[in-house]
From TrEMBL:
This is Isoquinoline 1-oxidoreductase alpha subunit. The lineage of its organism: Bacteria, Pseudomonadati, Pseudomonadota, Betaproteobacteria, Burkholderiales. Gene3D superfamilies: 3.10.20.30, [2Fe-2S]-binding domain. It comes from the Bacteria. It comes from Roseateles saccharophilus (Pseudomonas saccharophila). Its EC number is 1.3.99.16.
Amino acid sequence: MAELTVNGKRVQFEAEADTPLLWVLREQLSLTGTKYGCGVAQCGACTVHVDGAPVRSCVMPASALTSAQKITTIEGLAPNASHPLQKAWDALDVPQCGFCQSGMLMAAAALLKAKPKPTDADIDAAMTNICRCGTYNRVRAAIHLAAGQVQRKQIPIVIDGGQA
């Protein structure tokens, strides 16, 4: 048995030494908000925080972590989806298919913790997650909204080539 601290709770699991953290979270701890996308740390759907830093959990062996390290998944980001980013995501209808969004939110949360008022360049550098629906403009707008840099009414939303 091994032990990790996930979303503020000590949890035990049993897995082979090379089992990625992603599979421990999803299959053994039933934390299915973290998604499997590519399996090679390219897409970011599996992003979680380890001691506050964004980590691609599909390539992080669970055995490389200690119980002293704090792992946060999308389920542990905020109770009742109350994080400013989750509220901004909802207000701006960021997701389309939604598959990549938990990883996007975790990457964005780490960005805002490091840079509370990020520039577009900061966002572009930090948000390396891939969205196959192409919601990048809405992601950027939601990050600015969550950072308090703009008001909801200042963000134009484009629908079918025109503004809403």
